[in-house]
Write a structure and sequence with these properties.
By secondary structure, the chain is of the alpha+beta class. The protein has one domain: 3-Layer(aba) Sandwich (Glutaredoxin). Helices cover 29% and strands 16% of the residues. The protein contains 5 helices and 6 strands, in the order βββαβαααββα. It has a 4-stranded mixed beta sheet with strand order 4-3-5-6, with helices on both faces. A two-stranded antiparallel ribbon has the order 1-2. Strand 1 and strand 2 form a beta hairpin. The protein is globular.
Length: 181
């Protein structure tokens, strides 16, 4: 099994094989429009604009599994991202990223790189951890996706080299991205 074995639908409904991204460095992120982490779209777009010409692709996967923070349809999601954050990186159709209904891509990613916990030294890590403990304690068990804006970094050969939880700001990923480019 390889990252390149997966096919998904783009936000406009076209089937896209991840094989199309062979030889590229990838960031794969589950996203949402009504989340405290939604402003990460802006920094993901900045990273995309700076490094796309050097071989970086960012793939966004909207998901409504976390407190229904992505309620819109695919067209609404696309418009929201373009209007509010100027997103030009590829977006895909809404999918589930955890549980029995999780898309096989996200099952693969979360099994390949285990959850190592949230950064409790970071204010948003403390807040998210407390929120999950109180409202969704089952989310903290196992390696599944914990919340919106979990980001996976993939090298040019398709190896998953990093998992960055929602509390990691995209700009903090730049040193790892630059090593792979």
């Amino acid at each position: 099994m390889s990252i390149y074995d997966f096919k998904l639908k783009g936000i406009d409904g076209e089937e896209i094989s991840l094989e199309n991204y062979k030889g590229k460095v990838l960031i794969i992120a589950n996203t949402a429009s009504k989340c405290g982490f939604t402003p990460q779209y802006a920094d993901l777009e900045k990273i995309y604009e700076k490094y796309n010409s050097k071989g970086l692709e960012i793939l966004g996967f909207p998901c409504n599994q976390f407190a229904e923070q992505e309620p819109g349809n695919n067209n609404e999601v696309k418009k929201f991202c373009e209007i509010n954050y100027g997103v030009t990186f590829p977006l895909f159709e809404k999918i589930d990223v955890r549980g029995a209904s999780a898309h096989p891509l996200f099952k693969y990613l979360s099994e390949a790189v285990p959850f190592k916990g949230l950064d409790l030294n970071h204010p948003s890590g403390k807040i998210l951890n407390s929120f999950l403990e109180e409202k969704f304690p089952e989310y903290l068990i196992g390696n599944s996706i914990k919340w919106n804006f979990t980001k996976f970094l993939i090298d040019r050969e398709g190896n998953i080299v990093g998992r960055f939880e929602p509390t990691t700001e995209p700009l903090d990923m730049i040193p790892e991205i630059e090593k792979l480019l």
